Amino acid sequence: MKVHKKIYTLLLLGFLGLAGRAQAQQQQQQEGERYQDYFQVKAIPDTTKIRIGEPIKIDITAKVMLYALKGANIKVAFPNLPDSLNHIEIVDRGKLDTIGSNEQQRLFRATMTVTSFDSGRWEMPPMKFEVYSMTDGSYDSVFTEPFFIDVNTVAVDTTQAFKPIKDVRRAPINIFDYWPWLLAVFLIVSLTVIYFAYWHKRRPKAPPAPPKPSKTPFEAALAELQRIGREKPWNTDVKAYYTDLTDVLRQYFEQQFKIPALEQTSAELLQNIKPVTILNQQRDKLQRILTVADLAKFAKMQPTPEEHEACLREAIDIVEWTRASVTAAESKEESNNATT
User: 193-204 burial by CB neighbour count: b if 16+ within 10 A, else e?
Assistant: First the structure.
């Protein structure tokens, strides 16, 4: 009886051990399947059959389920592929985006473009993804499924004979192909015509040169003195007579000898003619004329008729005395004009 009890006990313990081991294996298998659901990667081409040089778009996705990794800071590293692998050329790696991510999952996606210039059947190898846990530093790797790409050549009809290479043909000239250049030329010509027709005419012209006096200062002064002698204005207005007489002499000195005589008093004028030798030689006559004129204009003195005529004669003598200087200046100006 005791032997049977021991056998039953051993059998019960063995059964319990086998059941626990099977349950542990089942739990481990379920955990493995759940882990595979935590991190899923795919590489799906839009086609697997192309002609040489045609592009293939490969949609690469990596999905991390966050509900099972609460509190974990996850980082996903996409495959680092060379530019060429196994007769396949990578044309564009695409941009990574996270459209579709939410609180439950994080979705990474990129579209890669590849092609091939060798005919045949080529395998796109598995792509390695790595997921890092920034919380505890652990990481794991997951690979995509490989797939094959069939690259075909362009079909050639060998039953047809080869044809010679044709000569280069020039396209016919179409004037509308050059309309930007024609428009530019038209605008330039139009603006040039408008400028010369409108703005150029409205441009302010240079002021005309002052007309050359018909008489020299010497001739003008002598003519004015002769006019005064004919009219004898002292018979009607003594003050006006002496004003005209001294103004003729002052204007003559200013035009011929560049002395600002019209702006100077009698004393200043007598002082400023000293450097001009030919005028200084007639200083006494000029002083008598200016003295009598100032007394008649400002002191209301009434000179005698003889004094009126004497002042006029002395004024004519002063102008006549400078004839030699005027003739020499005119000769010098004519010689300068002739040399230029």
Answer: eeeeeeeeeeee
Nearest to 43 by CA among 134, 106, 109, 98: 109
pLDDT tens, position by position, 296-320 = 888 888 888 888 888 888 888 888 8
**Closest Cα partner for 79 from 101, 98, 62?**
62
143 in the same domain as 235 = no
Strand partners, 110: 60
Tally of CA atoms within 13 A in the half-sphere of 194 that contains its CB: 6
What does the alpha-carbon distance between residue 69 and residue 88 come to, in Å, rounded to a whole number?
37
Single residue among 101, 118, 152 that ends a domain in this structure: 152
Q: Do the beta carbons of residue 106 and residue 63 sit within 8 Å?
A: yes
Mark which of 95, 119, 152 sits at the end of a domain: 152
Cα 244 → chain centroid: 68
Terminal CA-to-CA distance of the chain, rounded, Å? Answer: 160
pLDDT tens digits, one per residue of 42-59? 999 999 999 999 999 999
For 115-167, the pLDDT digits (tens) are: 999 999 999 999 998 887 777 777 778 899 999 999 998 877 778 787 888 88
221 plus 132 within the same structural domain: no
* Radius of gyration of the CA atoms of the chain, in A: 61
Tell me how far apart the alpha carbons of residues 253 and 259 are, in angstroms, rounded to a whole number: 6
Which range of residues forms the domain containing residue 240? 217-328
In a domain, 9, yes or no: no
- Global pTM reads 0.40
What strand order describes the sheet that includes 128-133? 74-77, 128-133, 139-143
The Cβ-side half-sphere exposure at 72, using a 13 Å CA radius, reads 21
* Residues 144, 44: Cα–Cα separation, whole Å: 9
How far apart (Å, rounded) are the C-alpha atoms in residues 121 and 148? 7
